[in-house]
Amino acid sequence: MNNADGLVAGLEKEGLRHFLTATLSEDLGHGGDVTSAVTVPAEARLRAEIATRQDIVLAGVALAEAFFRELDPDVVVERCAEDGAHLKPGDPILRIEGAGRPMLTAERSALNSLQHLSGIATLTRQYVDQIEGTGCTLLDTRKTIPGLRVLEKYAARVGGATNHRMRLDDGILIKDNHIAIAGSLEAAVRSACEADTGLEVQVEVDLIEQIEPALGAGAERLLCDNMPPDVLREAVRLVAGRVPIEASGGVRLETIREIASTGVDYVSVGRITQSAPAADIGLDYTTA
User: Fold this and answer.
1) Domain 13-123+276-287, what fold?
2) Domain extent listing, the chain
């Protein structure tokens, strides 16, 4: 899932260059890797293996590889697994051989990226597995670490989720604050429809009583926020397939199947990007 579309972890060439440069600059500062410079001979060569120490869904392998190539264009890298692979403890991910100093310098940035993205993909897959067979689709959200949205949403896709809005300009989602400023739910929805942006108009509803007014004003999709399963079932019955329904708000691994089984089309979960623990992935060296 890395390069078939010309992207690396969802990043285009310019975005990848920016990410590599910014990340390494953050780590190197002005003086570079002083510890490696004063302890590792300039001619030293190393071999290393990156392997998982837990069950994971792999994401970010090409990005990790890019860090090593950025600092040592002659590094030899053997990719042992691709993004989307389900790996067991001890399974290798990358084998690397090259100059010692740049390999040590790139290690932390490569591992941080791989651990973070694989953690998201792994947690996402757990949520996807929980709703298997319900006909419901898992969505991610915009609850991402600033600057990492493209990467994190890529990892969510690897785990089996479908991306919701990537940015504020690729979808209309009318929420409580928009409604309050517009004066009413109907006024907000009508204003969005009349703007004729070509974007789907989705509106958040908290109460069953808001559904018909939203649809009457032209809403093309509903987000049912923090509704318990019995209320969601009633919402599905009232809508009767006229527009897609998304459930959201406080969804957890232990509750998502019951929510998905109410008949909603989508369940969105901020936790898969916001709260995913880093995967336990390590790197071990030997002298080349």
Assistant:
1) Aldehyde Oxidoreductase; domain 3 (3.90.1170)
2) 13-123+276-287, 162-268
How many Å apart are CA 62 and CA 47, to the nearest integer? 18
Q: What is the pLDDT of residues 222-231, one digit of tens each?
A: 999 999 999 9
Q: What homologous superfamily does CATH list for 162-268?
A: Aldolase class I (3.20.20.70)
* Interval 134-144: pLDDT, tens: 999 999 999 99
Active site residue 13: no
Catalytic annotation, pick one of 47, 175, 233, 257: 175
| Percentage of the residues of the chain whose pLDDT score is greater than 70 | 98
171-188 CB burial, b ≥16 within 10 A, e <16:
bbbbeeebbeebeebbeb
Residue 123, token pair as written in the block? 């947690």
Tell me, yes or no, if 88 is annotated catalytic.
no
CA angle 178, 179, 183 (to 5 degrees): 120
Question: Cα(209)–Cα(161) distance, rounded to whole angstroms?
Answer: 30
153 an active-site residue?
A: no
Q: Which of 82, 225, 234, 280 is catalytic?
A: 225
Out of 47, 69, 95, 108, the active site residue is 108
- Confirm if 173 and 162 have CB atoms less than 8 A apart: no
Q: What residue type is assigned to position 78 of the chain?
A: E
